[in-house]
Amino acid sequence: MSETQTNTDTPLLSVRDLKVHFPFRRGSLLNPQKGVIRAVDGISFDIARGETLGLVGESGCGKSTTARAIINLVSPTSGDVKVDGVSIAGMSDAAMLPYRRRVQMVFQDPFASLNPRMTVGGIIGEPLVVHSLARGRDRKLEVLRLMELVGLNPRFLNRYPHEFSGGQRQRIGIARALAVQPDLILCDEPVSALDVSIQAQIINLLMDLQQKLGLSYLFIAHDLAVVRHIATRVGVMYLGRIAELATAEELYAGPKHPYTEALLSAVPVPDPELAAKRQRIVLSGEVPSPDVYYPGCAFADRCPVKIERCLTDRPALPNKKHAAACWVREEDVQLDQRSV
Amino acid sequence: MTQTESTPATTSSESSDDAILSVSDLHVSFKTDEGMVRAVRGVSFDVRAGETVAIVGESGSGKSVTNLAMMGLVPKPPGNVDSGKAMFGGRDLLTMSDRNLQDIRGRHIAMIFQDPMTALNPLMTVEQQLTEMTRLHLSLTRQEARKRAVEMLGLVGITAPEKRLRDYPHQFSGGMRQRVMIAMALSCEPELLIADEPTTALDVTIQAQIMELLADLQARKGTAIVLITHDLGVVAGVADRVLVMYAGRIVERADVRTLFANPQHPYTIGLLGSLPNIESNRDEPLAAIPGQPPDLSQPIVGCSFRDRCPHRFERCQTDDPVLTSRGALESEPHMAACHADLTNADAEHAEAQQ
Ligand SMILES: Nc1ncnc2c1ncn2[C@@H]1O[C@H](COP(=O)(O)OP(=O)(O)OP(=O)(O)O)[C@@H](O)[C@H]1O
Ligand SMILES: Nc1ncnc2c1ncn2[C@@H]1O[C@H](COP(=O)(O)OP(=O)(O)OP(=O)(O)O)[C@@H](O)[C@H]1O
Ligand code: SF4
Ligand SMILES: [Mg+2]
Ligand SMILES: [Mg+2]
């Protein structure tokens, strides 16, 4: 357990009603259009110490934006992010510095997220410099140790990112995040470019560190089998909101939200015989757009079990252990009052 | 049953007449501070019209470099295509002039890159990038090209495509960028599509939609697809044949059912054994192949997998295994590059899996 753990009752990370809207201006001079993209539109969740929250959902539903808002890479439009009970929204860079050490991010794109002009040694060692954690020989030894930990040949210390394959670059990002011994790592598709054997090594490593050091993870991934394995709880996002939140066991054993159901039915199975027989739930209907405000449930148009109410009233995510924002599948759903 | 006569990887047990792409004995290396990195060390394979060939394998095994080499996109220097052929429509892509290659790229062969930013220009709008190809290759007017762009974006599941045409790539999510690239690659309906990890950033529902789109193109146009992916679920669902790469070589090849049911190379067996299961238990660590792949800047003696291999014996230390037949099934030969005969190890493997 880390020493910084001051109060065991406050969650390590607490996100409340977070919204990130990107204003845009499009169209021509004659026909200007203005509006906002509601990338993240009111989500709340906690991550406790030593816990892994999996975050899954449709491409473009706001997962990366959520993670970026948590480390202040984009400013939230509204809502609050607390680390250990302290609100970090609007904090100055200097005041942010300790949080930047405690909360690290592994970025989704292993190609764009590494500085092309720095060697691997420089990239992995940089956070050690920024946070004055190790210098000189110690730093080099630490970098070599980290490279070995993620399965990179330490001989490549002086290579540049473009000299690595996609999966090798992804592991450079992971080594960099681990360098400063953070409390929380926001992992945005951290294993998507790895073959399943190296993926297994990395996942075992992350889980091992969690056991030993009490690390917490926000784990964004499209591979639902991987999420099932690593996550203690899972949030399913749909168009900027959380549609369902539950323990991993409950979610996979009995999904409540119709979107979660459709998602689970589409998981490809690594078996050609079974794959040929698989039936997936094909969603028809209009895929909603993040620049439109939907008064009802955003999934309504594609939903196989919708009722009339779904088109006009927005269901809130109830505050309970296995919760779904759905008028049909969830018992005590309230009208979402906050959102306009 | 293992037949022991060896089939040299370079010759043409596989070079069938109906192949639209035929790669033989490709070697690619990179000059680095640590020496020559032999990224691709003698790769041969064929792709026929209308079929999907999946390439799977270890991260860093040379999958991307193999395909970049065919498209003339290995950066030179530090890279170099040392030898080999890649025949497409009777011409060798590896010796073709840049101009001729450019005519073929995009129009006849399209590539979906593992790195979206190789294909997307951050300073151009999505519309500019999508219309550039179709105007050039299909001679569409601006209007037509725009219409085609909207249609393609819709097909890859981008909502409100008209509105998003004017966006720049950085305004798109990771998966949306990937889909723009897919739309670009498909918009000229190529005869050969090389897709390098096309669905890593896509959720499973959109992934299924994209796979259907590819299948549809394949059915209509007879497009051949080379699909590089780590997602063995996708491989099981769409591939006809599979090539397994390790340390710059193909170490096993078979039709998809045989490969999953009866893998013969210890690396393939380890890979399939590392799959997380949707029902897997959190308390048990995932199985992984222990150890690291060899350093490709050093000479490799014996089998490149030997240090990690549970089946190794003396011969593996000294002799380089070539692809040998493990029994043909239907049209596709099943071959593996391994000295051990694992045809009877099946039962043990099945037990170990329990
Ligand atoms: N420009 C370069 N300079 C030096 N080495 C390189 C360069 N590009 C690639 N390599 C090396 O060549 C090998 C093959 O790389 P390649 O990108 O083909 O791997 P891959 O099989 O596609 O892996 P991944 O699944 O991780 O994408 C790797 O070991 C990589 O480090
Ligand atoms: N800088 C930006 N400017 C404008 N729109 C943006 C910006 N960044 C993200 N968006 C939009 O916000 C929405 C959510 O994007 P985000 O990257 O969070 O999705 P995601 O869930 O991570 O998707 P993926 O699984 O594809 O990576 C998308 O519609 C995207 O186009
Ligand atoms: S040749 Fe030997 S070391 Fe190589 S895979 Fe076969 S048994 Fe293992
Ligand atoms: Mg993302
Ligand atoms: Mg690659």
**Name of the CATH first level of the largest domain in chain B:** Alpha Beta
Which regions of chain B contain 5 or more consecutive residues with pLDDT less than 50? Answer: 1-15, 350-354
Order of helices and strands of chain A: EEEHEEHEHHHEHEHEEHHHE
Pair of chains with the largest interface and how many residues each contributes = A-B, 77 and 73 residues
Portion in beta strands of chain A: 15-25%
What proportion of the residues of chain B is helical, as a percent range? 25-40%
Question: Terminal Cα separation of chain A, in Å?
Answer: 42 Å
Ends distance of chain B: 25 Å
Largest sheet of chain A, described in full?
7 strands, mixed
- The CATH architecture of chain A can be given as 3-Layer(aba) Sandwich
Class by alpha and beta content of chain B:
alpha/beta
Strand content range of chain B: 15-25%
Low-confidence blocks of residues of chain A: 1-5
Helical segment count of chain B? 13
Domain ABC transporter (chain B): 21-272
GO molecular function (chain B): ATP binding
Membrane topology (chain B): Peripheral membrane protein
Protein name (chain B): ABC transporter ATP-binding protein
Notes on the protein architecture:
Chain A: Keywords: ATP-binding, Nucleotide-binding, Transport. Chain A: Pfam families: ABC_tran, oligo_HPY. Chain A: Belongs to the ABC transporter superfamily. Chain A: GO terms for molecular function: ATP binding. The complex is a heterodimer of chains A (340) and B (354). Chain A has 10 helices and 11 strands. Chain A is α/β, with parallel strands linked by helices and 340 residues long. In chain A, the strands form 2 sheets. Chain A has a 7-stranded mixed β-sheet, sandwiched between helices. A 4-stranded antiparallel β-sheet of chain A has the order 2-1-4-5. In chain A, strand 7, helix 6 and strand 8 form a beta-alpha-beta unit. Chain A is globular, with a radius of gyration of 21 Å. The N terminus of chain A is likely disordered. With 354 residues, chain B is of the alpha/beta class. Chain B folds into 2 domains: 270 residues, Rossmann fold (3-Layer(aba) Sandwich); 71 residues, no CATH class. Chain B has 13 helices and 12 strands. In chain B, the strands form 2 sheets. Chain B has an 8-stranded mixed β-sheet with strand order 6-7-8-3-9-10-12-11, sandwiched between helices. Chain B has a 4-stranded antiparallel β-sheet with strand order 2-1-4-5. In chain B, a hairpin with a 2-residue loop joins strand 11 and strand 12. In chain B, helix 4 crosses helix 5. Chain B is globular. At the A-B interface, strand 1, helix 5, helix 6, helix 7 and helix 10 of A face helix 3, helix 7, helix 8, helix 9 and helix 10 of B. The complex binds adenosine-5'-triphosphate (2 copies), iron/sulfur cluster (SF4) and magnesium ion (MG) (2 copies). The site of one magnesium ion has 4 residues of chain B, from helix 1.
